[in-house]
Amino acid sequence: FSLLPRPPCRMAPRASPAAACACEPCRALAGSCSCVSAGAMQGASRADSGDKALIEEDLAAESHWEKAVAVALGGACASTAYFTFCRLLQGDGSTAEGVVDLLHSAYTSAVAARGISALQRHEVFDIALPPKLARAGGPVVRMFCHSMGYFLADACLILLELSRGHSPKLWAGRLVHHAIQSTSNGLSIFRTSRPQETLAMRSGLCQAYFAEFSTIFLRLSSLARRSRSVQHRWTRALDWSLLVSFGLCRLVNFSFLIRCCLRARPVFSPGLHALLLGIQGSAYVLNVGWFLKLARSCLRPSMRHVSLEC
User: Fold this and answer.
1) In the chain, how long is the greatest CA-to-CA distance?
2) For residue range 207-229, what is the model confidence (pLDDT) as tens digits?
3) What region does 296 belong to: left with phi over 0, alpha with psi -120 to 50, or beta?
4) What are the distances in angstroms from CA 248 to CA 36, 123, 168, 265, 290?
5) Which one, of 254, 248, 216, 204, lies nearest residue 105 by Cα?
6) Which long-range contacts (CB under 8 A, 24 or more apart) does 243-249 make?
7) pTM of the model
8) Is 133 helix (H, G, I), strand (E, B) or coil?
9) CA 188 → CA 142, 148, 304, distances in Å?
10) What CA–CA distance (Å, rounded) separates 134 from 206?
C-alpha cells in the first residue's frame, strides 16, 4: 500500500475537512460553509429579535377595555347557557351546572391544545407561544378572557345561592378554585408592562389549561351516573378514561409546566415568580391526592364515586 500515490489533500484524523485540507477547492468550501453557518446564526438572531419586537408592539397596542369586554362576554354566555339548561331540564340546576362546565372544558382544552401544538423554542424558558397566539386578539388570550368570565359568573351564582340559604355542592372548594384561577388569568391578561414576563405567563397558562381535557371525562362520568339509562360498562369506561387523562393532563403536564416556570425565573419579578410557583405547587399536590382517590375508585368499583372540583 505504500507504493500507491497519495491524494493531493490529506486530512488529519480528527480535524474537520475545512481545517485539515489546504488545497484551493477545500479552502473555498470552508469559506462558504463558514459563511452559511454565520448567516444561519445571524438569521436566527434576527428572527428572535423580530419576535421580541413584534411581541412588544402587540402588547403596547392591547386595549384593556377590549379584554374586559371579552371577560364580560364569557360571563354572559355562561350565565345564559346555565339558565337555558335549567329551563330545559325543568329546574335541575346541578345537571345544568355539569353541562355548562362540560362545554367550558371542551372549549378551553381545544384552544389550549391548539396553542400547545404551536409552541416554539425560547432562548430563556423552554417553550413559548408564537407572537400571533400570544397577542390579545388571538384565540388563546380570548379563551383566557372568556374562561375568566365563566369562573366569575359561577362564583356569583354560588354567592347568590348561599344568600338564599342554599349550599351548592362543593361550594367552598369551588370559590377557592375560582379565586385562584381568576387571579392567574387576570395577571396573564392584564399585566403587560414586561413583554417577556407576559409571554411566559400566557405560555404557561396555555399549558395549564390543557388540564381541562380531563374535566370532560369527569363531567361525562358524573352525568352518566345521574342517568339510569347509561349501562354500567360505559360508566366504568369513563372512569378509566378520567384516570388516564387526569394523570397525563394534571400530573405529567404540570410537572413540565413547573419545570418551565423554574427556567423562566429571569424574566419574572421575584414576588410574581414565587406566587406562580406556589399556585402550581399547591395545584400539583391537590392533583396527586385526587389522582389517588380516582385510582382507588377505579380499582374498587363498590366505592362511592369520587366528587372533585378541579
Assistant:
1) 104
2) 999 999 999 999 998 888 877 77
3) alpha
4) 42, 26, 29, 25, 13
5) 216
6) 243/291, 243/294, 243/295, 243/298, 245/213, 245/214, 245/216, 245/217, 246/214, 246/217, 246/218, 246/287, 246/290, 246/291, 246/294, 247/291, 248/214, 249/210, 249/211, 249/212, 249/213, 249/214
7) 0.80
8) helix
9) 11, 11, 38
10) 10
Predicted pLDDT at 17:
45
Query: CB 241: neighbour CB atoms within 10 A?
Result: 16
184 phi/psi in degrees, rounded to 5 = -60, -45
The one-letter code for the residue type at 145 is C
Residues 75, 77, 78, 79, CA torsion sign: positive
C-alpha dihedral sign at 151, 154, 160, 163: negative
Selection from 67, 64, 76, 61 nearest residue 145 by Cα? 67
- 10 Å CB burial of residue 65 (0-12, 13-18, 19+) is exposed
Per-residue pLDDT reduced to its tens digit, 12-38 = 444 444 444 555 544 554 554 444 444
Find where cell 339558565 sits. 83
With a CB cutoff of 8 Å and minimum separation 6, the contacts of 225 are 235, 305
Collapsing DSSP to helix, strand or coil, 111 comes out as: helix
Q: Which residues are within 8 A (CB) of 283 and not within 5 positions of it... i.e. 6 or more apart?
A: 254
Q: Which three cell numbers stand for residue 293?
A: 382517590
Per-residue pLDDT at 301:
66
C-alpha cell of 71? 371577560
